[in-house]
Amino acid sequence: MRIMLLAIALVAVAACSDQRSGDSGTFTLYRNSVVAGIARVHVATFDAKDGGAYNRENCEQVAGFYSAQPGIETMFWCEPGFFRQEP
């Protein structure tokens, strides 16, 4: 089951486009750090041309998959737009 969830997460990440036509419809997956809990670490950017709802759903699914892994102490979350060091 764990391998299947990881495979789905990787497929979702790979499905994202590399084109940057603006932040419209783009979502970015972040995580914090066990060592520095307030850190914003970039995990993935979801900017497929299928639109914002599609990108948000994929980002939230991957965040859920990572969070559900046994022993994971970091938090994962999605924000609209491309990667930003600070909110």
Describe what this molecule looks like in 3D.
The chain has 87 residues and is α+β, with helices and mostly antiparallel strands. The chain has one domain (2-80). The chain is built from two helices and three strands; from the N terminus they run H-E-E-H-E. It has helices spanning 2-14, 52-67, and strands at residues 27-31, 41-46, 76-80. It has a three-stranded antiparallel sheet with strand order 2-1-3, covered by helices on one side. The longest helix is centred in the last third of the chain and has 16 residues, at 52-67. The chain is flat. It starts with a helix and ends in a 7-residue tail after the last strand. The relative contact order is 0.26. Residues 4-21 have low confidence and may be disordered.
Strand order of the largest sheet: 2-1-3
Q: How many structural domains? A: 1
Strand content: 15-25%
Order of helices and strands: HEEHE
Cα shape: flat
Number of DSSP strand runs: 3
Number of helices: 2
Beginning-to-end CA distance, first to last residue: 34 Å
Structure in a nutshell:
The protein is flat, with a radius of gyration of 13 Å. It has 87 residues and is of the alpha+beta class.
Characteristics:
3-stranded antiparallel β-sheet, 87 residues, alpha+beta, 2 helices
